[in-house]
Amino acid sequence: MGxxxxxxxxxxxxxILEVVGVITGLLCVYLAAxxxxxxxxxxxxxxxxxxxxxxxSHLFADMGLQFYFLVTNIYGWYFWSKKTASEDKTPVMRxxxxxxxxxxIAVIVFTFILGSVLKYTTASYPYLDSFCTACSLxxxxxxxxxxxxxxxxWIFVDVIYVGVYVYKNxxxxxxxxAIYVGIALLGYIDWKRDWKKQAA
Length: 200
Description:
The protein is mainly alpha-helical. About 80% of the residues lie in helices and about 0% in strands.
């Protein structure tokens, strides 16, 4: 009985905004993993909600990231809509060596610059938050461009986010990111299967 009461109390303390953000966030990532274009409008709703959630939690780099996600979600919706008449969906691509090098450099530079700025604010974990934001920037553009390895970056960064959100008492968001890890793994497996079919 104590566990049920504790769960009821926990549920009553959850924000409706966070609940809607979690539901739309999970749906959009699941649809992206399944290579279904309707992930993009749900992603737009989710990031719009998380702009307010992260502002309220003083996770300013994450808040700024949502504005970037908003733009790349619109772009992703457009890019995934472009396919030839003979294609069922836009083909999956593999990462190039130059993209790996440029991505690593971008993550290091962005983390240092943004972290150095945020440490003078009330931001929580300025450098860790900036690092996760930088990794997410790279992963999101790869997702929009249908690059297979975007899922590996998401797995890595989502594991870190789980810990951050637990510590910030965003429990539903932490659960959502833990589920994201599993969905990203499924996305990688499904997209790799699609890429092999294309190659054949």
